[in-house]
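In keeping with the milestone schedule agreed at the kick-off meeting, the structural modelling team has produced records for the first pair of proteins. Each record is given below as a sequence line and a structure-token line. The laboratory manager (R.T.) confirmed that both were archived under the project's standard naming scheme.
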Amino acid sequence: MTLDTVLAGLLVVVGLVGVLVPVIPGLVLVVAGVAVWAVPRNDVVGWTVLGVAVAVVALGTVAKYLLPGARMRAAGVPGRTLVAGGVLGVVGFFVVPVVGLVLGFVAGVYLVELSRLGRAGAWPSTRTALAAVGWSILIELAAGLLATAVWVGALVLG
């Protein structure tokens, strides 16, 4: 096993963890790890694996934003609610590291929906937003795992 392969593996693992820990750019690190392995090889296998990994990550990134957003629009949750959740999530991240991101997001969504719909409608909208975020993370994780599987497949077969 070469140093490039070990470094690539570390980047891929950190990238997969980064999908779950919002501070780390997960999919970017997965692609970077595959590139660290593929570029020095400079052969058809390396470039093909890198191309497939980039395509999988690109499709996953598009799906990560389109699918949950469509579900939220269908449920009637406006975009400004998500913006408020995101802003309070960032603030929460600095107030209570890592966990504050989730707490701030939930609080932001709930407060905006509370002012928009009242007490009865705020929690269902918040649940819908949380489900959308969960789906977004799952889609991103699936894309990262699929790109990793392509790379591992090339390692095993090549």
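The second protein of the pair:
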Amino acid sequence: MKPIAIFRHLECEGPGYFADFLDQQDLPYTLIRVDQNDPVPSCIDDYSALVFMGGPMSVNDDIPWIAKELTLIQQAANQDMPMLGHCLGGQLIAKALGGLITANPVKEIGWHSVARQQNATGEDWLAELPQNFEVFHWHGETFSIPDGASLLLSSQYCENQAFAMGNTLALQCHVEMTTPMVKEWVTEYSDELSAPSASLQSGDLILETLEAKINQLKPIADKIYQRWVQVLV
């Protein structure tokens, strides 16, 4: 099997638990460290799937690697190659497939519940998950749902939390988090936590009972990732 290409856009926003999951499944992957100037491939021939992680930049920013990744996503979509996006990664997929990336009504940061949407695609992708479950969030922008895709998840503060189209899954939320990642983000991005609100939790609240929250998140991530890798094995 060809490796899965994982695109990392900032060192502290790497694949996290997703890499652990792939290791558990004995699935090969290659980490493309865009933050370390690893070149974005010009074609998809060497990979079995594409995975895009998060980052503090906007998909609408004029950054050369963004345009290259959008082109790569379009190539993969044309060949029905499986893709997975986390937060910024989900926005990249959405934009490449014709969606719009705009400011969310509020910043959504911290631990918030998402709700499954009742449709056939949702039943396919999320059948083993509860109707409502808590995941991690850290975003100020949101994607629209591209034509032909199906909305899977919504939250109180962001309507479009996930969509699927064919073999592609795009997430606005973060299911890849580990305890060290959450702690690092709270430190690295502390300036974003200076004015807590209903949608934007304080650093102390984010870290409260962190181990328990991560332990509840892992089985959710397992079910989502297991459904995604079905198309690979």
